[in-house]
Amino acid sequence: MMQKLVGLIGGALAGLLVAGTAAVAHPHVFVTMKSEVVYAPDGSVTGIRHAWSFDDMFSSYSTQGLESKEKGVFTREELAPLAEVNVTSLKEYEFFTHAKADGKKVDLADPAGGAYWLEYKDSVLTLNFTLPLKAPVKAKEFSFEIYDPSYFVDFALSDKDPVTLAQAPAGCKLTYAKPKDAPSAKLGESFFNNPANAQNWGAQFANKVDVKCP
């Protein structure tokens, strides 16, 4: 678990372990998301765009020690090395995104150079990135879920316009479902040190998106 704690943001979260007792229970990080399903002119799905806004504490630790021309203000260029660390680390976890086309698993490629960046606004870091499909696919139903199997990261769809379609064929219908409420009491490390619990426990809190086209 420590490897994941350090890897996700290049060590920025390590300080959370000594920040207070809340840090020893899952989840450690809270993400508010917006997603967009991207279509090509021929009606095939080409990728998924994500915008993940991290919680205040995570954003604060992530930006500690970063150099900037203006104190408390970070440009996209100044945040570029941190964005690369995020994307590189998230590859190991397949970006917590699991897609299907007509019920069959779809393979997603890593974000290409220039297809990801960080922005900092109102003390919140937002990671923007596009996951292209390894091969564009035409499907009557395209769906994906976002969750962390170990519940290290809590994902929540934004209250406003959480999911959109880009250039989708006429008649496509979008639905999404937010996960049920997590346990009222945070779960400690001992729970997740049990492989039976840690393997895919977070799947029950998946955010689900489904698009059906004629």
Q: Could you explain the architecture of this structure?
A:
By secondary structure, the protein is α+β, with helices and mostly antiparallel strands. It has one domain (about 1-195). The protein contains five helices and 13 strands. A hairpin with a 2-residue loop joins β4 (about 95-100) and β5. The longest helix has 16 residues, at about 75-90. Residues about 1-25 have low confidence and may be disordered.
Q: pLDDT average, as an integer?
A: 84
In DSSP terms (H or I, runs of 4 or more residues), the helix count works out at 5
Estimated radius of gyration? 18 Å
Class inferred from helices and paired strands: alpha+beta
The helix-strand sequence is HEEEHHEEEEEEEEEHHE
Strand content: 35-45%
Q: Report how far the terminal alpha carbons are from each other.
A: 44 Å
Q: What general form does the structure show?
A: globular
Main β sheet profile: 6 strands, mixed
Sequence stretches where pLDDT stays below 50 over 5 or more residues? 1-24
Overall number of strands: 13
Question: Structurally, how many domains make up the residues?
Answer: 1
Q: How helix-rich are the residues, as a percent range?
A: 10-25%
Which properties best describe this structure?
single chain, 214 residues, alpha+beta, 6-stranded mixed β-sheet, 5-stranded antiparallel β-sheet, 5 helices, 37% strand
